[in-house]
Task: structure prediction
Amino acid sequence: MTTKKTSVIGFPRIGKARELKFASEKFFKGEISEAELQKTAAEIRLYGWQKQKAAGIDFIPSNDFSFYDNVLDTAFLLGAVPARYKELGLSELETYFAAAHGYQGEKGDVKALPMKKWFNTNYHYIVPELDDSTELAVAGDVKPLREYNEAKAAGVHTVPSLVGPYTFLKLARYNGKRNASAFATPAVNAYLKLAEQLAAAGAEWVSFAEPALVFDLSEEDKQFFKAIYSALLEQLHAKASVKVLLQTYFGDIRDVYQEVVSLGFDGIGIDFVEGIKSLELLKTGFPKNATLFAGVVNGKNIWRADYEKKNLLLIEIEKVVDASRLVVGTSCSLLHVPYTVAAEQKLSPEILKHFAFAEEKLVELSDIASENPDAIEKNRTLFGIDRVKATPSVQSALAALNDSDFVRSPARAERRNIQAAEFNLPAYPTTTIGSFPQTAEVRANRAAFRKGEITREQYVTFNQKKIAQCIALQESIGLDVIVHGEFERNDMVEYFGTQIDGFIFTQNAWVQSYGTRCVKPPVVWGDIHRSKPITVEWSVFAQKQTSKPVKGMLTGPVTILNWSFPREDISLKTQAQQIGLAIRDEVLDLEKNGIKIIQIDEAALREKLPLRKSDWHKEYLDWAIPAFRLVHAKVRPETQIHTHMCYSEFNDIVKDIDAMDADVITFEASRSDLKLLDALNEARFETQVGPGVYDIHSPRVPSVDEIVKTIHKIIDKVPQANVWVNPDCGLKTRGEAETTASLKNLVAAAKQLRAEV
Result:
């Protein structure tokens, strides 16, 4: 029996206790120096390298660390930094953060680069921006080289991991006449120079990550990829003694597999978890002198791997690739899972034994690669357990669903007239997305109640005071539709998960969403159902404080599912419908208690959309859109249903979003320069719409004039009567002063526009 080698594509980088988040935020506030921030980063990197080395991982990545995002790192590595950021005259790291989340200060005022979802995950990447003056080149002591040398000095030999040139150029935005093809040769030259530097430093392998190869590829795409790597590999093999690994993940590479296996890569990384056709493709042939990095351990979910199934898969793989040329690896970066189960103190061992976070997945790799008989037997026992017992009431409710449960009547156009008479809102009605700033005082109150340090009465009294203040503030600002501020909520998904049966929660299972934003996803453990009202108490209190409508704020079933770790023993469709029935109960209770506008957020609707368009409907949209309609189909015509979506490309699913049959939808649009508007216009979007008029993920305050200009851009593409005015997302992470100033300017801009109607 040959023990196979093991590899990891990437490791978590926020710190076991979110050290990077807290150090970065202190750096932003000027509370620590850049040197102190860099020290924290170095400690986090060292921890990851040492953990992987101790677990016996053979191929350990470096350059998988990032202060904010690896795509943004690549832009800075290649010199693709827009002039407006360089002209601020900041340090390199400060310039980097200005591009990531904007800058407003004595040296200037610039917005951040756009931010989008990273393929089908809840991670976000910063979109590179290239214009006609951009010169791609690598110079000086660059990050991949620094971090390779840093690991080497610590006694860890690593594989430098780079976002590949094809993916980088396909994800970039082009502002000028030059397109991706025009940058291909400079990109090849830059990557060649970098690989030569890494080889000279002692690197045996360099990994080029090309997840964009799992999309539907046109013939032009295939030729573009082939042209890049034909040139790069030819020169690398001639000039540098370094092996090249092409690493793919998030699916299979069916459109370009034959090109990949014929180009001469030393190693090819293939995803056998999400790659539906990966095994089928492999059986068509694999290069005799190349190493297969087989992604068999799921890098995106937290459940234990079934060793028996994994070993059966490897048996099939070894019919094509000899074990000596086979490396057992993760399906994608472990960035998407928490650090370790060992950090969980409150969940029982009976629950925890079913989980494998990043550090446990390192052990799984070793067990599977070595075919450890004791580990295999223990794993077999685990999977012999009947973990979940079905809940009869949930099963009955699912079985009773019929077509009428997914269709709201009357039609939207008729509802709109009824709602116009009900609310009598002005042109350009103003609102916010839901949450208001969560101050240290708010978080402390919540923590004290959770720890039993204050009574429920004290907790409720505090929150009611904050709600009353929040509503008074909104009335003084002049907003038309009010929110209660969500001071009782920690997270838009976790809050609902804690109130619904079927979820379990961790203490420290934090995962990076973007930059310093970390989330702690709930775990779908069993059948899901609601046993009592969740938000009614807070919404009713809030509505009593004002004559203006107060939105009931809920999270939709698809977002709750997509931002949780789902079960793997039943379908996503079934889980979404279970959650949908629970949220429907809440919607109907809010309506019954006098709440006339209800927002059901589906921020993550696109997140699990298959990366191939041919799979969009049958694999996802055909159940995701009905799951949303299930939630609101039974409300009265005069009840106005809102929803919200953020940080994704929606242009190509606009008609499906319209089919959700909401009355009003708000979008994140500010970072993407309102490019969504063209798609709304082209699709003759019927739903009333509020494209975000300013970016809440930046501390800068937009001026009245800036917002007016933004609204003018909106009404150039969307009928004025359909337009709402709002920020692009919730305000939880912003400061109170900047929030108030921004909203005052928003209302002033709307009033200025009303004068033009």
Q: What stands out?
A: The radius of gyration is 26 Å. The first strand starts at residue 5 and ends at 7. The chain has a mean pLDDT of 94. The domain at 428-754 is CATH 3.20.20.210 (TIM Barrel).
